[in-house]
Structures are given as structure tokens and as C-alpha cells.
């Protein structure tokens, strides 16, 4: 189907297409496009048809190729999974929003454009900010919520993510390593091994890769993160859907203490803290995380 034909389809027709064109693996999932109020959004879809799909919301500066294939493929063994690009990122059109509020509104509109009535959400880092905001704005839309490597609005230190990250981004450039080596993982032997394995997995897709983020989009998303850190605290006790929270015990980007804070404030929330792990704890312990996430979603 051509891009023009895809844009001409109705939400109901999008839902039929989604069920009919589900890939067996994330590496083989094709890039798809949908028009949302005049802006093109990119997504990939795979997994089992039926039930509420699991929508994946990723980190600062991430495009579709930054979703961990082991996590996505593992979840897709039992779930229909949809990974998306935010506005202004990767193959999605428009200008990257300056607030989490706008990203949440975009995602709600995207889900509606796909003809989906209810979803599960998995938000990692920035994606966790967006997922919380969606769940508070549209609680009837969200069946279950998974928050990984993330924190609440107004969380201590979130407005300092840029100050923490830029020196490590520079370190990555100077050492010829991907900055996520230092940002997502600990400096221990286990952490360095996990970083190498994770980055190798991100390179598994050879064809039809997504476009990398522009510097402008990168900076605008950082401004949105800074604003989230200065945002008034939200009433997380209003979240009545089941919530699973996961992180490493040494997250230097969004402090691990914030995962504990969310778990205290969200009624009945489950909390997983991985030892000797950082911001990317769910990638370092992907097998265990997938198993526990699937159990949580199936309960």
C-alpha cells in the first residue's frame, strides 16, 4: 500500500490493516505511517493480534531503532506491540514538542487514529513521563501501565538531566563509544558487558532503518524534560489501573529514588529494582523484565 493510500484510510480501516500486517520480529517490522490531524507519525507493529495492544514510548532522542529488539520481540510473543516515533523525531513529521503535555496529546490522538479503544502503555524514561500524563488525562484509554527508568512530574533532579548528560555525551564522543554506554549502564564489569550487548542489538536491523534525531529535536525534547522536572507534582493516587515500575538500583539520569517515590504514591503499584544496573536496567535484565512484564499484563 502506498503512503497516500494509507493516509486515505479511515481509523477502522487502519485497525483492519494493523491486524492483517503484523511482523514476526522487530527487525523485520516495516515502517508504517499514519496521518494525525495533518501530521505524519511513524510506527512499527508486531506480535499477537487480539486484546489491548501494548504501545511503547521511548526515551529522549530515541527513534524506532532505539527500542531494544529483545524486549520488543519478547513482549510480542504474547502481545500485539506498537512502537511509535514522537512528533518531530525519526520519520514522524512536524516539530518536536516542548512539553510532555503535547507529547501525551499527540499519542492519544495517534491511538485514536489507529482505531484503538484501549491500550496498555510501556514508557521508558521520557516515555514514562508521557505515559503517566496519558494515564491521568485519559484513564479510560489505559488498561495497564508500565513505567521504566522514569520519574514523576516535579521529581527531584529531572530538571538536571541535561547537566548530567552532556558531559557523558562528550565522553562518548572522545572515547568513540555510544553515550548510552555511560548514561544507561553502570561502570562495573556487568554494566559494560550489558552496554555492549544492548548496543549490538540496536544494530541488528540492517534495512529500512529510521532517520536519526536532529539536533533541534534533541534539544527541544530536553527542554520538555526540563519543564517536566519543574512541573507541579501530579496526583498519582488518581491512577487506578494496575501499574508496574522498574529501574536499576543506580540510575544516574532519573534517580532510582524516584521509582520508589512513584511506587509509594500510586495505589497498589508493583516495583522491580535490578541490582548493579542503571537507567537501562530493563535492557540489562531484558529476559527477566519481559517475563515479569508479560505476567503483569496477563494478570
UniProtKB/TrEMBL annotation:
Domain AB hydrolase-1 stretches: 53-285
Keyword entries, A-Z: Hydrolase
Pfam families in UniProt: Abhydrolase_1
InterPro entries listed in its UniProt record: AB_hydrolase, AB_hydrolase_1, AB_hydrolase_fold
GO molecular function, one term: hydrolase activity
Name under which the protein is recorded: Alpha/beta hydrolase
